[in-house]
Amino acid sequence: MKRGSKMANVFVRNVTESDLKSIDYKVKKLQETDPTGRWNRSKYIRMLINNDAKKELENYEKTQYELTIKRLLELQGETFKTLNKILYLMTNGELPEAMDLLDKVANEGS
């Protein structure tokens, strides 16, 4: 927890005994690996809450990243098709049409 950050009490209800045993078992294992033995149930649950919040943010950012990549790939495909069309027009002696298409592409980009 960062210094100066405000903490609030959170009460958890209706936790099964098996869930509490599982939490306590994991806390015990953490205490065994940590020579200072600073782990307790409250710290472990705070860690779970923090990790869950970070995971939700990471999932959101991953989704936004994937959408951005998808859109970039779509734009790349459109650009490739347009450039192929311009090349086709130029190689077939249709220079005015090719220049019109180049102008259209240049104006869309600005």
Keywords summarizing the entry:
rod-shaped; mainly alpha; 3 helices; 110 residues
Task: Tell me what the structure shows.
This protein has 110 residues and is an all-alpha fold. 75% of the residues lie in helices and 0% in strands. The model has no long low-confidence stretch (mean pLDDT 88).
DSSP, total strands: 0
Specify the biggest β-sheet.
Answer: none
**Count of alpha/pi helices:** 3
Instruction: Please trace the helix and strand order, writing H or E for each element.
Output: HHH
Per DSSP, what share of the residues sits in E-state strands of 2 or more residues?
Answer: under 5%
| Alpha-carbon distance between the two ends | 47 Å
- Poorly predicted ranges: none
The backbone outline, from C-alpha atoms, is: rod-shaped
Structural class: mainly alpha
- Based on CA atoms alone, the radius of gyration comes out at 29 Å
What is the helix content? over 70%
Mean pLDDT: 88
Short description:
This protein is mainly α and 110 residues long. It contains three helices and no strands. The longest helix is centred in the middle third of the chain and has 51 residues, at 41-91.
